[in-house]
Amino acid sequence: MRVLTGVTIGVAIVVSVTSCGSSSNPTTSTTGSGSTVATAGDGALTLYSGQHEQTVTALVAAFGAATGITVNVRSDDEATLANQILQEGKDSPADMFFAENPPALNVLDDAKLLAPVAPSTLAKVATTYNPTSGDWVGVSARSVALAYNTDQVGESALPSSILDLAEPAWKGKVGFAPGETDFQPLITTIIKLKGLDAATAWLKDLKANSTIFDDNEGLVAAIDRGEVEVGIIDHYYWFRLRDEVGASKLKTGLHYFASGDAGNLVDVSGAAQLATSKHPKSDAAFLAFLVSEAGQRIIADSESYEYPLGSGVQTTKDLRPFADFGQSPMSIADLGDGKQALQLLQQVGLL
Amino acid sequence: MNASAVAPTGVTPRFRRPRRTTERSPWWLRVVVAVVGVGLAVPLVSVATQAVSAGSSTAHRILTGPILPSLLLHTVYLTAIVASACGLLGLGAAWLVERTDLPLRRLFAVMLLLPLAVPEFVAGYSWVSIAPSIQGLRGASFVMTLSLYPLVYLPVSAALRRTDAGADEVARSLGVGPFARFWRITMPSVKRPLFGGMLLVGLYLLAEYGAFAILRYRTFATAIYTQYRLGFDGNAASVLTMVLCLIGVVLLTAESRIGRVGHPGRETGRPAYRARLGWTMPLAVLAILALCALAIGVPVGSIIYWMVRGSSTTLPPASVFTTAVRSLGLGAVAAGVATALALPVAVLSVRHPSKFASTVERTAYLDRALPGIAIGLTFVTLTVHHLRPLYQSTTLLEAAYVLLFFPLALVAIRSAVARVPPVFDEIARSLGLSPLRVMCRITIPLVLPGLGAAATLVWLSSTTELTATLLLRPTGLSTLATQFWVYTSGLAYGAAAPYAAIMIGMSVIPVALLTRLSRTASQRHRSVAS
After folding, report:
1. Do B456 and A11 touch (CB under 8 A)?
2. CA distance B379 to A228
């Protein structure tokens, strides 16, 4: 038994020595999920990414093949990464940030941590999908949608406006995830379109009608199991669920709100380079690549099921045609940092 | 955990063996403990500084928010319910395994510890996916009790195994009934490990976020995460975190008031008498089996379900293997370091109890009540500006693991040190050995199984840690937990399942080791005592 104990402690010490050695060695390859890791010393870029990891891995690999520039990807929740960059301030090792929603980028923009994006890069994307500051560029888009259990809800019963979900008819049937970073832009939109008082009343009624979920993954899976009848999600959760469950076994349908409705919201994932980056030229090249035809084709083909926004590339997946969304009720600039939406969610007691 | 390791007044002296020496503690021991204490205080000081700099108007705005009172109540309810339930389950299971003629005891001893190997976020996911009604206060209490009761079971069963059953036998021969004997003789001897375990459970609950998020039960920690994630407001979050710390102080104080009364029984040189279960035996076996099935069967079952049913199970097995080895390696380092640092703290606080020693101990416990994101961002702020070479290095990640799981190591080593009579140290000292040599040649060999248990507990926990790992890892480094997170956040449960399976599968070895170490400790003690 003494031997066994000795072995445990011995293993701990040996591993500690070896791993401390490797941490100081920049050329160590620590690829786990396929993300590219520094081999190129000084020239390698660091990207903080809150986006779908598999898609980002594909983008980074293609960029590396085309330019020879290595990009190290640090994946985490977009909000955690934004907090991390705020804490790091001028000392941030990050060169670029790829977020899922505008608030995370706008918070950094307000803190003067982002550098302007090259006009030629911004020009690849329609101006509606870029911020007025020009400090980050829209890369891909997702839309708000309603997932519904096909056994429980008929297509004819589905609402044309997201505001209808607060009606008494939907009591006990709705699910949503107020803590998701995807949800804030929707609330911002309703505040802008209907005013703060109406938005407050709507949110209170919606809360009374609904089951609260922690995240959209849990929500869409619960709809498929028939636990709630409908749920407010971003469209791609439905496609990812279909991949996992299989189209033949899927019991969930996807419904879009009418054109002009607050729920017909197209939201943008964007990328930025940090003001403190030590490789501004390579960063600019990467951002240009993201919205180039080659980069956008990767997004168009990927299993993140988002809409490409640049260079006129269309999705190759069976998504609703992007043109069908028509005019989005909000410009991206209007989405701001989401603080007002957060305060409302807290005031109503959802957070 | 505080100075009352000395016999409290009113306890018959012959029942007690002094745990401390009269000699003054060696200066180097105090220095080492002081350094460790400073390290442990870093996150608390950092959060407190930020909270103070946030100013009283922020504090007022945050603390008068509309839902804070209800979140505070949620936290209090949950802590009370889960700590009590873990106390009951842990005590009951430990008594059945250690003090009755329950069949298959050896097997149950291992199985009852296995929930330690299931990360809370895996347990949460699996319960929600098989029984969606598992949510809210009831659901959260249920799931958390099932995953945390081993923190009580482990120390209580160790105490039951080594305390003398003589008093129990005498009382029995005098016709005292089983319930009275349990209450008046067994209970006092396990009171300390029982309340110590419940304290750990309470502190874990204060800081927990992930599982409650999945179970849709919102506590104070949830509010803190919201301030960070949606408000990007570190100041507000730090004000809230200070409130959690206050609750942690209340728990620590309560534990030291209640848990220290009573006395550990005399330690024995022979195995304890085992009660005959008789006709209740099948019921007891069923109860233990049901507990194991719920705590282990459900997570394992749903992982298998994901692997079979999910369409995304297309993994190169090689990546699973290398990731597993890396996770084990990271955990092993943290285990070695945490054990080495906890030993001096345990020795000082048991042998030379003082305000200073108990302050260091309490600091370690209070850290446990800080949410992972608060600790992680503290490490970010500190290293990125002042210790740049350490930032996003494996060393920093290891430091975070050591800090997060230091209390586990401390509890295990503390009880091991307390079991070694100081008379051995004193004899060695009188024969002319220096205090350092006494430590190396007498104390460490005698507490070796305790060190092994400490290392194993830290190893298990840090191998599956998620929040701090995501925040502090070197860019590009992946562990089993981060891979599980990547796939589940993309809804690819099938692809995530192998990582969860390995996390649980590979933990069987350390858990078995833990059980054996704990047995060895009591045997070793027996040979020393006799």
Report:
1. no
2. 41
Query: How far apart are the CA of B175 and the nearest CA of chain A, in angstroms?
Result: 40
Q: Are B202 and B253 in contact (CB under 8 A)?
A: no
Is residue A347 within 8 Å of residue A200, measured between CB atoms?
yes
Residue of B nearest to A85 (CA): B380
pLDDT at A189: 93
At B94-121, the pLDDT tens digits run: 999 988 888 888 888 888 988 888 887 7
Residues 94-133 on B with a CB inside 8 Å of A are 128-129, 132
Q: Which two tokens stand for residue B85?
A: 């339930």
Residues facing residue A233 across a β-bridge = A145
pTM score of the predicted model: 0.82
Q: How far is B470 from chain A (nearest CA, A)?
A: 6
Closest-CA distance, A134 to chain B, in angstroms, reads 22
| Structural domains of chain B, with CATH | 41-268+283-529 (1.10.3720.10)
Residue A316, chain B, CB below 8 Å: the answer is: no
H helical segments located in B271-316: 281-292, 298-309
Q: Which residues sit opposite A232 in a β-bridge?
A: A146
Q: Which fold has domain A34-140+268-319?
A: D-Maltodextrin-Binding Protein; domain 2 (3.40.190)
- d(C-alpha A316, C-alpha A182), whole Å: 24
How far, in Å, CA of B207 to CA of B228, rounded? 15
Name the residue ranges covered by the structural domains of chain A.
34-140+268-319, 142-265+338-347
The alpha carbon of B176 is separated from its chain's Cα centroid by a whole number of angstroms, namely 36
**CB–CB of A123/A312 below 8 Å?**
no
Residues in A 182-201 with any Cβ partner in B closer than 8 A: 184
Which B residues in the span 209-238 are in contact with A, Cβ-Cβ below 8 Å?
213-214, 216, 223, 226, 228-232, 234
Q: Is B337–A338 a contact, with Cβ atoms under 8 angstroms apart?
A: no
Q: Check CB contact under 8 Å for A8 and B456.
A: yes
Q: What is the pLDDT of residue B104?
A: 86
Query: Are A267 and A234 spatial neighbours (Cβ–Cβ below 8 Å)?
Result: yes
Q: How far apart are CA B29 and CA B436, in angstroms?
A: 9
